[in-house]
Amino acid sequence: MYSQGLIGADGGSEETQEFLDAFQARIDAEEKIEPTDPMPEGYRRTLVRQIGQHAHSEVVGMLPEGNWISRAPSLKRKLALLAKVQDEGGHGLYLYSAAETLGVTREQMTEELLDGTAKYSSIFNYPTLSWADMGAVGWLVDGAAIMNQIPLCRCSYGPYARAMIRVCAEESFHQRQGYEIMLTLCKGTPAQKEMAQDALNRLWWPCLMMFGPHDGDSAHSEKSMKWKIKRFSNDELRGKFIAATVRQAEFLGLTIPDPDLKWDDSLNGGKGGYHHGEIDWSEFWRVVKGDGVMNVERVEMRKAAWDDGAWVREAALAHAAKRSAKMAAE
Amino acid sequence: MSNETPLWEVFIRPRNGLAHKHVGSLHAADEALALSAARDVYTRREEGTSIWAVRSDAIVASDPARAGQNFDPAEDKIYRHPTFYDIPEDVGHM
Amino acid sequence: MALYQALIELADDHLVLGQRLSEWCGHAPILEEDLALSNFALDVIGTARSLYAYAAEVEGKGRSEDDLAYLRSEREYLNCLLVERPNVDFAHTMLRQFYFASLMEPFWQAAVNSDDKVIAGIAGKAVKEMAYHIRHAGEWIVRLGDGTEESGARMRAAIVALHPYWEEMFTPCECDALPDRAALRSGWEANVKAVFAEAGLEWPEPVYGHVGGRKGEHSEVLGRMLSDMQYLQRAHPGATW
């Protein structure tokens, strides 16, 4: 979000204990870190990885919903879905820009996505099999994303926090349009309601996995919390998501596919919360490592867009170069 | 020639009477495409009435290492602030 | 029924074109163009919606905008053939958009002061959108025409491919409430040729111009597009979405 010219983080800062303590003191005082400020190399690397991953998730996330734009069942739904997928492209763009303030380019990040070194959210490696998935993705996937994203608006890194404020403001219609689709289906014909339940059945567990491994198994969490890149743990956010979603599912008349889901007043220091069934982490790791149904196709599609578009980007640059040469000659 | 599409900073005037404010960045090969992209990316929800786009590498920025010498000296110049001066209340609003 | 027919022609043009444009979403050469092409699609589908709604009202048989969009067959679709042409690549897509918008901008301009308040309202919004489409698509035609050897070749291939399809856009419609498209042809040609000149592109020799769209005689691609677009409405008759 800020120009390359403003980038100060060369990673060359001498990371004495004194330097690290001073940095931590700024974080603890809730000061925002800006691109030109000295920062530990680990902080910079963590952000590059996380913001890049986040940007890739938005851009790859265009594909499963893009799969239904042509088949949206009414003109109103078609416009809303198209606007939503367009927003996701915009969010990817804002986030790439935020990462670019840390000295990486969008081209580099794109190459990493296409060669498989960079990851994106595992949820997008599941297929969208019916129109109800457009409802469930909006309701659940965006709902989960919002849980994750709202705390990021207070992230210690200024450009990321600012990008997230924009993202969250725009995202507020996404979950609502998804829930409205579900609501319409659940009030519709038996076949439509069945479609809605089926989408919930397929997407529920992958959505819980979106929050990442249990706190004890999360490799980067502790440091990210200390640096205030992250503000809540994976399990805390997952718990909040479940609590918010159960009532919404009840209102729809849908059943959450977890027989072990049970309210417990004693959780969260007396505030209460849900116990949920065992998450199949072997599935999570399998999908993250590349063996989801859609992993190969998603990356291939992004690669095709990038490769097939190369001649367009080159032409625009060539024209610009010719024009400035001509202007210089005049 | 670099094969990377240049980065631009985008400034939007939300409505007449207000200053252009930095809203974000984008990539574009030239000025016209930068303005089009700024319109398509940053004004989808009636955010503005005017756009500036500036090549990011055309911005000159102050050196963070000199933040101390640049900005700290203003700290003790409290006589630049109106509250520094005592005016009797009877004089009325000033 | 002349007005109904004319509105359907226009609405189908916009919807079919929007359907094509929306195919780009998630696949554009640069993220900035994903947003631009989606904006193009949102503009024209939005216009299609207003036109269908008005057509349904004019028809007076209790049909809705979605009934008209989703429950007519390809033989009942009256769009011109140009808008159903496949995207092929960025050059084809931008040229198709440029041709279409270069007609629709003056068309809506002429309709802005229509006595028909609904048409005037649709025109007032669409004329600005089309002006932007001309500008943005025109920018790309110049860049692709002039850019590299490959982009120039692709732009020329697009011109050849779409050359049999632009004349049909000017088929007159028998409706006094809307501007006469035939009268806009010379202005259209002059504007297109001016951009071609800037792009270093040549206007080709005349070829046989295909017609048929306005009578519901299309190329094969439209039927496939509609079967995809209409599938849910067809599979679940009477359902609400």
The multimeric state of the shown protein is heterotrimer
The largest contact between protein chains, plus residue counts on each side, is: A-C, 49 and 49 residues
- Using the 3D structure, state the CATH architecture of chain C: Up-down Bundle
Cα radius of gyration of chain C in angstroms: 17 Å
CATH superfamily of chain C: Ferritin, core subunit, four-helix bundle
Strand content of chain C: under 5%
Name the strands of the widest sheet of chain A in spatial order: 1-2
Overall form of chain A: globular
Q: What is the total number of structural domains of chain C? A: 1
Taking pLDDT < 50 over at least 5 consecutive residues as the criterion, the unreliable ranges of chain A are: 1-12
Spans of chain C with pLDDT under 50 lasting ≥5 residues? none
| H-E order of chain C | HHHHHHHHHH
Specify the helix fraction band of chain A: 55-70%
- Class computed from helices, strands and strand pairing of chain C: mainly alpha
SSE sequence of chain A, one letter per element: HHHHHHHHHHEEHHH
Distance between the termini of chain C: 30 Å
Strand content of chain A: under 5%
Topology diagram in text:
The complex is a heterotrimer of chains A (330), B (94) and C (241).
Chain A: H1 17-28, H2 41-60, H3 62-66, H4 75-100, H5 106-114, H6 132-152, H7 158-186, H8 190-209, H9 221-226, H10 234-252, E1 262-264, E2 273-275, H11 281-291, H12 295-308, H13 310-329
Helix pairs in contact in A: 2-4, 4-7, 6-7, 6-8, 6-10
Chain B: E1 7-13, E2 21-27, H1 31-42, E3 50-55, H2 67-71
Antiparallel strand pairs in B: 1-2, 1-3
Chain C: H1 2-22, H2 31-59, H3 65-70, H4 81-84, H5 90-111, H6 117-146, H7 149-162, H8 185-199, H9 220-229, H10 231-235
Key terms for this structure?
heterotrimer; A: 330 residues; mainly alpha; two-stranded antiparallel sheet; 13 helices; 2 strands; disordered N terminus; B: 94 residues; alpha+beta; Ubiquitin-like (UB roll); three-stranded antiparallel β-sheet; 3 strands; 18% helix
Summarize this structure briefly.
The complex is a heterotrimer of chains A (330), B (94) and C (241). Chain A is mostly helical and 330 residues long.
